[in-house]
Amino acid sequence: MKIVVLKFGGTSVGSINRIKKVARIISQYVKTKKKVIVVSSAMSGVTNELINKTKKICNNFSPSEYDVLLSSGEQISCALISGSLNHIGIKSRSWLSWQVPIFTEGTYKKSRITNIFKSKISKYLRSGGVPVITGFQGINLENRLTTLERGGSDSSAIMIAKYFRAEKCIIYTDVEGVYTTDPKAVKKAKKIKKISYEEMLEMSSLGTKVMQPASIQDARLNRIDVDVKSSFVDRPGTLITKKKSVSKDKIITGISFTKNDSKITLIGVVDKPGVAASIFEPLSKNSINVDMVVQNISSDGKETDLTFTIKNDDIIKTEKLLNKNKLIKFKSLLVTKNVSKVSIIGVGMITTPGVTYRMFKALAKNKINIQVISTSEIKISVLINKKLIKKAISALHKEFNLEK
Ligand code: ASP
Ligand code: MG
Questions:
Q1: Predicted model pTM
Q2: 42 lines ligand 1 (CB under 6 A)
Q3: 209: DSSP letter
Q4: Are residues 265 and 141 in the same domain?
Q5: If we measure between CA atoms, which residue out of 2, 1, 4 comes closest to residue 226?
Q6: Is the residue at 242 inside a domain?
Q7: How remote is the CA of residue 389 from the centroid of ligand 1, in Å?
Q8: Which residues form the domain of 261?
Q9: Which helix (H) or strand (E) holds 18?
Q10: Is residue 21 domain-shared with residue 161, that is, in the same domain?
Q11: Residue pLDDT, tens place only, 63-85
């Protein structure tokens, strides 16, 4: 049985007209004699509206009821898709996660899929039907509804592709694929034909919002080919696949950037063993995600300046924790809000020397000052003034021949 999983995102099912269009897309796959499993997200805006309702009651709305409420969005879209398919003569029915069932583990609001029972869906596929399964939700061992993290219907689709050994998972969305950088910021941005899981993982955790990062990790671990394409126009999209199937003609595959980072600098920190641990321990205990870190030793070796970046939302909490921390001593604390992290990503840099130098030189030529640097095997990130993002990514896009 050759199976393909088709996943539709919120904007793809955002209105009744969009849903009718989705039914036509599905019908084209049905004609090819492949077995089709559909996974859908809620209609765009619906999940946010539901969350707003809970906030009107209180800020700590019961997590289990939150999941019951939020999973209703996917019930609506899936019923509408199945009904549209029936209307154009295709056998189909909706499946809520508990009807499959899809088991999850972990806490409410951020559960993870651990098992999918195949028998009922397989039987339905053999009978010639198109199952339309709710993304984003599951049940736990207490038989209660759960939801995955926001954007989690991507994960549902990947896990369904895994359990049913689908030959492909196609993610239908509102963009045509993954681009070398944000086309809104750089007009010459190009659609990437093929990208490795590793690169895509970096791109998405660094600000390229095409797929949920956790779902890319699921695809990588299970070696599932993922095609990202638009449900609005019929054009080839981007294939996310194994490293060895991606051509290495370019050193850099893409450039991404963040928009809501802040830089914290502690000046005159008394330098002794364990000081960095004392600074970061309370931050990590309070779920503050520290990203880039640099430490400068002062000339007398007794004091040091320590700089790191966090998300803007965490500034107040971080300042409080640092100021009340009795284990550390420092002269002053500086907060810089208008910073952005620009990253170049590419498996090609593993085998190509001089990439760092070329990046720095391109930025220097454009008089862009680098504040902090961090690197990994397939990524180099720099922290710069937020006002210079466009200039920086345009320069880097050109330097690494991404426009061709
Ligand atoms: N409807 C859910 C959300 O908005 C899941 C998804 O869209 O993937 O987060
Ligand atoms: Mg989504």
A1: 0.88
A2: yes
A3: T
A4: no
A5: 4
A6: no
A7: 29
A8: 257-399
A9: helix 16-31
A10: yes
A11: 999 999 999 999 999 999 999 99
